[in-house]
Amino acid sequence: MRLAVVAVAAVLLAGDAPLPPGGGGAEARAAFARLKGLAGTWRGESSKGWVEDLHFRVIAGGSAVLETSFDAHPGEAMATLFHLDGPRLMLTHYCVAGNQPRLVATGFAEGGRVITFSYLDGTNLASRDAGHMDALVLRFVDDGHLSARWTWYQDGRERWLEEIALTRAQPAALP
Fold it and tell me: What pTM was computed for the model?
């Protein structure tokens, strides 16, 4: 019994224990700082065939990053709001489907250059099986390139993936 307790303690002290959803705090804060660096206009090319401009703005006294897109669905706009919630990095996606899934960062890889967000909950969803954006993997390629891979979930399974390759078109205006 003592050996088992010592083994568990050693694993925890070595840092091999899984992170809580959203990270242990430091990774979430570093990822959020990286998201703030996206401020400006980006050109997105989707694996679904459309092209659009996306805008990232740091708002609310630096406590949130707002991404807006207007061209993916003609006549419709969507928004994604990224923010910290204590030690967690979260997002709410305001979708053209009329719902608002909330995702939490569940993984950080490649020195923080890859952030994986997973479904937490949502509003305007009759159930988990109602169609919604369910996951997002952001890959920071370099200062001028970003990849966003969104997953749509419906009726108990992933239905499709969409990858958007983003290229910086214009940095944020200086205040």
Answer: 0.83
